[in-house]
Amino acid sequence: MAGLNATLGEECELAGIAMERATQALLQADLAIAEQVITDHEKITVLSADAEEQAFALLALQAPVAGDLRAIVSGFQIVADVDRMGALALHVAKVARRRHPAHALPEEVNGYFAEMGRLAVKMARAAREVLNSQDPTDAIQLREDDDAMDDLHRHLFTVLMDREWRHGVAAAVDVTLLGRYYERFADHAVLIGRRVVFQATGKTPEQFQEAEERLEDDYI
Amino acid sequence: MAGLNATLGEECELAGIAMERATQALLQADLAIAEQVITDHEKITVLSADAEEQAFALLALQAPVAGDLRAIVSGFQIVADVDRMGALALHVAKVARRRHPAHALPEEVNGYFAEMGRLAVKMARAAREVLNSQDPTDAIQLREDDDAMDDLHRHLFTVLMDREWRHGVAAAVDVTLLGRYYERFADHAVLIGRRVVFQATGKTPEQFQEAEERLEDDYI
Q1: CATH code for the domain of B142
Q2: Does A61 reach chain B within 8 Å, measured CB to CB?
Q3: What pLDDT does B64 receive?
Q4: Separation of CA B170 from chain center
Q5: pLDDT at position A163
Q6: Model confidence over B136-190: pLDDT tens digits?
Q7: Rounded distance between C-alpha atoms, residue A152 and residue A113, angstroms
Q8: pLDDT surpasses 80 at B65
Q9: Which of A8, A139, B29, B152 makes an SS bond possible with A130, Cβ 3.0 to 4.6 Å?
Q10: Which residues form the PhoU domain (chains A, B) (predicted)?
Q11: The pLDDT of residue A145
């Protein structure tokens, strides 16, 4: 089981690195870095297949019960999430490549994407950490960075919708899709956090928090 | 196992109905229908939870082996796909509600969305059917409608990028996101088809097709 979660954690790390580089490629219109993300994507796909195989082996060979069963099933679901995170980083890199040598982003939104990139990378690392630690409280914390991501995403739309937007429709379409890729990347990291809570406690994050609060009340 | 797939099939049906109505709400700026999709979304969420419970019960109580194990694990993955299809239909309905009483879509792209809606609904129904029939050949066919969806999606972007676009940036942003919702809905239907191939044959669609072609060659 620890082996499966370690593979999933490694995959989160790679997805985070991919998003970090894709963001760099996007902000600096750097073709070489974009190409590297695109080439390296294969590694993420391989880890997804590895993780599924490990999970099947655990299910088939060890006839697991209750807690282990829950953890393995969550493992299958986490594969789908982290695989998607990798695909979203790949999408970002492809936009950077498609627009090169031009910048895909108008300069006025660079700051938003630098910050959304920073949050996305931070969340991928946090997902890796909670996969290893199985700490449900840390796993729930992923939601806070996601709230920050959602705020940025909302602000980005106000910039787009502003009458002062002078970069045309094509740039607006790119910014819209790119914004969505970062936001979905963060959503999947949050889902991984939720699934770790379930792996570790058998509860949804809501049930877990409620139980914790009841416990605190008992000690007051 | 048939019970689990029936629940998943029912959920596909509901996701298809949601997308059908959401498209109608979008094209006709019909607030009542949009609201209905939003209210009915709860039913899809409930079916997701039902399906996961059924899958856990099958895993835990029947200690399944090989084929059944594969089918149940695929069941968990299908839940995630169909749940997402429901969420994407909900997103479409919410855009229709947000823009009401205005139409979210400029009239010149109505035809694209009518057709993307028709394909999405057809694919949700096909996903339901292959979940019930477990026919791998039909399950692979879902890719063809997805190719048609991708074509429409690409054409939609040419309309958006055209210098003649006179509907402003806000409409372009809506059209971009809406187009993506339909395209992702179709992607998830294709994924369900892939997972049914795996449920039924233990092979990926690529492995299954290769084996079929070898079989045909043997008979020539």
Answers
A1: 1.20.58.220
A2: no
A3: 76
A4: 26
A5: 78
A6: 999 999 999 999 999 999 999 999 988 789 999 999 999 999 999 999 999 999 9
A7: 9
A8: no
A9: A139
A10: 12-95, 114-196
A11: 95
**pLDDT (tens digit, 9 = 90+) per residue, B135-150?**
999 999 999 999 999 9
Give yes or no for a contact between A26 and A95, defined as CB atoms under 8 angstroms apart.
Answer: yes
Instruction: Select the residue of B59, B169, B172 nearest A69 (Cβ to Cβ).
Output: B59
Burial of B164 (0-12, 13-18, 19+ CB in 10 A): exposed
Q: Tokens 């109608």 appear where?
A: B24
**Buried-state track B173-211, b at ≥16 Cβ within 10 A, e below 16:** bbbbbbbbbbbbbbbbbbbbbbbbbbbbbeeebeebeee
CA nearest to A62 within chain B: B63
Which DSSP string corresponds to B64-110?
--HHHHHHHHHHHHHHHHHHHHHHHHHHHHHHHHHHTTS-SS-GGGH
- For an interface test with A, the pick among B68, B160, B173, B191 (most A C-beta atoms closer than 10 Å) comes out as B173
ipTM comes to 0.92
Nearest to A169 among B60, B63, B160 (CB): B160
